[in-house]
Design goal:
By secondary structure, this protein is mainly alpha-helical. It contains 6 helices and no strands.
Amino acid sequence: MDATRIIELASYTLPALITGIVATQFFKLHTKNEDKRRSYLLHREAQKTALPLRLQAYERMTLFLERINLNQLLIRIAPNSTQKEPYEQLVIAHIEQEFEHNLTQQIYMSNECWNFIMTAKNATIQMIRIAAKKESITNAQQMRELIINDLLEKQSPSHAALAYIKNEVGDLW
């Protein structure tokens, strides 16, 4: 093989190799962009169905927190008797029942948000138990008054959870 034959072979082979490499790179780039586009379209379609469910879950948990707000709860649930222990159990049972009704909503919200809601529920129950354990409180009406007066000085435990839910829903947009 002489030098002219090698140069001639290289002049045909080199452009073909360059064209092949460029075509391969464009094909990889096109495939990558198509995968991203499909992924985006799937994500967007999933968001169309998931977003209303998530918003409904936030709405239900907001309603739960409003319903366990002690200012409203103690007015809504009147004592059956004058004894404080049955009233304590009645109010806590209402909170637990309301919570169990909304338990499945946790799958639509973040763990941190759910923890805020759990903390608010537990703190509310704790406030009721602390008031019921006070020796100076002898009946259900005094227990109601004590809790409501305590809430005049500080915020309800559900207040922080409500603020967190509002913040998290705002981040969805």
